[in-house]
Write a structure and sequence with these properties.
Elements lengths: L5 H11 L4 E4 L6 H8 L4 E4 L3 H15 L3 E5 L3 H4 L2 H9 L4 E5 L17 H5 L8
Parallel strand pairs: 1-2, 1-3, 3-4
């Protein structure tokens, strides 16, 4: 029996929910989620900046009526999604942001690209964890 990783479960969950496209910028802490994405029917649209990826996902949701999904790495990648998240919240556009995070043992130790993402994005999201 093969081991199911969190990254694999994430991509399978997106597939199960009918997600057909995600918008993102690969980097550091989110790279493990990109491995199962390679074998998935979900199409990845590469953005040049996380904020652009967030707004692309927002535009996709607005135009199609389907949920927009954006993917970014930890720290600055995640904080670059705050504006699209806030905009989507204010406009009632369904947007899901998936971000990486530093390893659990490094949280609270000022690790490279560590940020309190849940706290930073709390005012800009309906649900946050």
């Amino acid at each position: 029996m093969s081991e199911t990783t969190g990254a694999h479960a994430l991509i399978k969950s997106l597939e199960h929910e009918g997600v057909e496209v995600v918008f993102g910028v690969p980097g550091g802490a989110i790279l493990p989620a990109y491995d199962p994405l390679l074998d998935s029917p979900i199409r990845h649209v590469l953005a040049r900046h996380e904020q652009g990826a967030g707004h692309m996902a927002q535009g996709y949701a607005w135009a199609t009526g389907r949920v927009g999904v954006t993917i970014a790495t930890s720290g600055p990648g995640a904080t670059n999604l705050v504006t699209p998240l806030a905009d989507a919240l204010m406009d009632s556009v369904p947007l899901v942001a998936v971000t990486g995070q530093v390893p659990t043992y490094a949280v609270g130790n000022d690790a490279f690209q560590e940020a309190y993402t849940t706290g930073i994005t709390l005012p800009a999201t309906k649900h946050n964890y």
